[in-house]
Design a protein that fits this description.
By secondary structure, the chain is α/β, with parallel strands linked by helices. It has a single domain (about 10-235), classed as NAD(P)-binding Rossmann-like Domain (Rossmann fold), CATH 3.40.50. It has helices at about 20-30, 45-55, 70-85, 110-135, 155-175, 195-200, 205-210, 220-230; strands at about 10-15, 35-40, 60-65, 90, 140-145, 180-190, 240-245. Helix 5 (about 155-175) links the parallel strand 5 (about 140-145) and strand 6.
């Protein structure tokens, strides 16, 4: 973990912050000086993240929010601004895996569940985050897509569809707001050592390792470093980018 203070005075809003990539990124922002609104479906699930941020000397605002419910998203962004004063960085990371099945066997309820959280949830978050950033005159948004956003995945049509769509939405929003001081990018993780990966493989992590050209799973902290770079002044000329951090999986 870097020891810079790139985000002193900044406020970051991180969804899916109760575990995995979201937790690691929220902690990384806090270690570099940001005050962080950590968002997930239940407050109890967020407590470990909040404790880690406090142990690092940081400040966390815990917000229970289901990103598939627009009113909850709007309330979460409003509470962040009311409590922390502004919103400089948004990392839209909340997402779910699909139940593996060939396309013709996917139930409509399952399709809607995946798209509602992964795609619609990201859209609604961006809608309210960017509205606040426009008031301030600047801001950075990073969305979590996936290596599955640039390749097909057998048994994963709903997940791949949502992650492909996030890239298109990211590129379009980047053009919408390029002259408004707001940058919008996407990070594309590969197979990462997270609870989601454990669920998706049914605990058979070796199956995921075998897919990685580098021969190992990525770490959540490695994705966090990419997100922090995109969110910092070091990435000031980067917008509309889709940056793969996947050990070569999507090649």
């Amino acid at each position: 973990m870097s020891s810079f203070n790139r985000f002193t005075g900044k406020v970051a809003f991180v969804t899916g912050a109760a575990s995995g990539i979201g937790r690691a990124t929220a902690i990384a922002f806090a270690k570099e000086g940001a005050r962080v609104a950590i968002v997930d479906r239940t407050e109890n699930a967020l407590q470990l993240t909040a404790d880690a941020i406090a142990a690092a000397g940081g400040e966390a605002l815990v917000i229970a929010c289901d990103v598939s419910v627009p009113d909850q998203v709007e309330a979460a962004v409003t509470r962040t601004v009311e409590t922390l004063g502004r919103l400089d960085i948004a990392f839209n990371n909340a997402g779910v895996e699909n139940k593996a099945a060939p396309l013709a066997e996917i139930e409509l309820d399952e399709w809607d569940r995946v798209l509602d959280i992964n795609l619609r949830g990201t859209f609604v978050c961006m809608k309210h985050e960017i509205a606040q950033m426009l008031k301030q005159g600047d801001g950075v948004v990073v969305n979590t897509s996936s290596g599955a956003g640039v390749r097909g995945v057998a048994g994963g049509s709903s997940y791949a569809a949502s992650k492909h769509a996030i890239i298109g939405m990211t590129k379009s929003a980047a053009l919408d707001y390029a002259k408004s001081g707001i940058r919008v990018n996407a990070v594309l993780p590969g197979n990462i050592e997270t609870p989601m990966m454990d669920r998706f493989t049914g605990g058979n992590i070796q199956k995921a390792i075998d897919l990685e050209p580098v021969g190992r799973l990525g770490k959540p902290e490695e994705i966090a470093e990419a997100v922090l770079w995109m969110s910092s002044d070091l990435g000031a000329f980067v917008t509309g980018a889709s940056i793969s951090v996947d050990g070569g999986w999507s090649l």
